[in-house]
Amino acid sequence: MEHRNFEELVHLSVFGELKKTERVLLEAHLSECVDCREELESLLKLKSILNKNRSVEVDDKLLNEARMELRSAIRREKSKPDFLGGILFSVKSLLVQNYKPVLSGLTLLIFGLLLGYLFFYQPADPVLLTDNGSPNNGVSSVLNSNDVRISNVRFLDQDVSDGEVEFVFEAIRPMRIKGRIDDENIKNILTYSILNDDNPGTRLNTLSLINSKESPSMDMEIKSAVLDVVMYDENTGVRREAFKLLTKFPYDEEIKQTYLYVLMNDSSSSMRIDAMKALVDAGKGGYKFSPDDLSVFKEKMRTDENNYIRYYAKTVLQENK
Description:
Elements: H1 3-14, H2 20-30, H3 34-52, H4 60-79, H5 83-97, H6 99-120, H7 138-143, E1 149-157, E2 166-172, H8 184-196, H9 200-212, H10 220-232, H11 236-246, H12 253-265, H13 269-284, H14 291-303, H15 307-319
Antiparallel strand pairs: 1-2
Helix pairs in contact: 1-2, 1-3, 8-9, 8-10, 9-11, 10-11, 12-13, 13-15, 14-15
């Protein structure tokens, strides 16, 4: 028998759980093993101590007090906020209890930022203009230009005792550019104008300019801008001019999806009709309608408020059965 088996027998012997043969083996082992003898003595002492402690009789008063303490503990646990709430509660408590140091710190921070701005911020130096009397130089070259807008005048020296004043101002002057319409810089400016100019007349003129060219540029950036304008520009005239330009691009999936979008969403019935005709023309050119495409026509046949669109959509569906 291995030693660990005798250790188990030692524990069982304390509680009188050994068989006769096991007890004989253990006694023989104890006569030779000091460790097991010490373990047995230790266990017997522990058992003796436990036997001396009588069980406590719990009366009703003690039981009620224990129940009240238990309920109080449960209520405290339930009233505790969750993890995020705990953080917010802690921050709130910190601010409420220590608002004076926090307020002082914020004040110092703001004051430091203000001082830093005053001492270290260096605005861009304005261009110093001097007038040497020539109409093409200095002050004269700016002020004699009728297309310059002057604003935000700030005086640096208002003392006229020496006959001079000094001030800064902002001058906005239109730029003029001339070049080929295929030039990259010009295309970039036109694309920006199509997408971003606040004036719908300017956007319309830009599209008309590009449209007026017999073979407009097939530049992908311009195409992307035109697709956006066709779908999302708020002005119907601008969308229509962009639509005309879009029809000059080679038909592809992207353009088809744009036509379908216009057919489904444009508020102008004439734009929806143009989109439907463009899709039909593409179909006559060899492009097949997918089931999803035809589902758009079915939807328009049932729901479009325009009689012509409903009739046209029905005709397309009959031709594509």
